[in-house]
Amino acid sequence: MHYEIDIKNFFSKNTAIIGGKETGKTNILKDLVRYFYKEEYSIILFDSATSKGENSLLVDSDNKYYHNIIIPSPSEEKINFVNPNSDDYPLLHVYKSYYNIYFFDVAKYLEKSNNTSNLEEKETLLSYYKQFIVQGLIVMLPVVSKKRAIVIMDEIDLVPNVKRLIEIYNSLGIYVIIAVNSIESLSTSSVLFNVINLD
Predict the structure, then answer these.
(1) For 143-161, how does the pLDDT look when each residue is reduced to its tens digit (9 = 90+)?
(2) I want to staple 50 with a disulfide (CB 3.0 to 4.6 A). Which of 38, 107, 161, 196 is the partner?
(3) Is 27 within a domain?
């Protein structure tokens, strides 16, 4: 399926692209990354599907565009990385230089959670995955607060406390575009999104 997109729809509101596998969600996001990169926006990109390799949004974009930075999922010992008092602050270099695209590879803990049958371990790993997304959004706020910017997310599950963060981004004129399998993935933030349904 090919979905014709009108770029103007993504400038003034949050947009959720919803559809099952092979409906073209990631291809739409790739088109949007290309457009916003050309327009010299700062792009904050979260991807949980990097196991797709060259077909993933993160890998494809990193291969095509320049002056990017990839922020991998931190180790379990450093999962609470939004800590300015830390001696080893993994995102300190984000503040020291300008990048075109800030990639957050959030696949690590999601993939680990899919590979364990231990329910307690699965819950812990999923909490790390969700915590990294929240902290990534917090860390990027001062970086892009005075820039033209866009947030793009591929296959990301949002937690309830993300809603307030999205509202803060929106108050700065920064909108979120997310591709998910179902509206349930948006949690309480669903009320903030215009929905494009590909199914």
Answers:
(1) 888 889 999 999 999 999 8
(2) 107
(3) yes
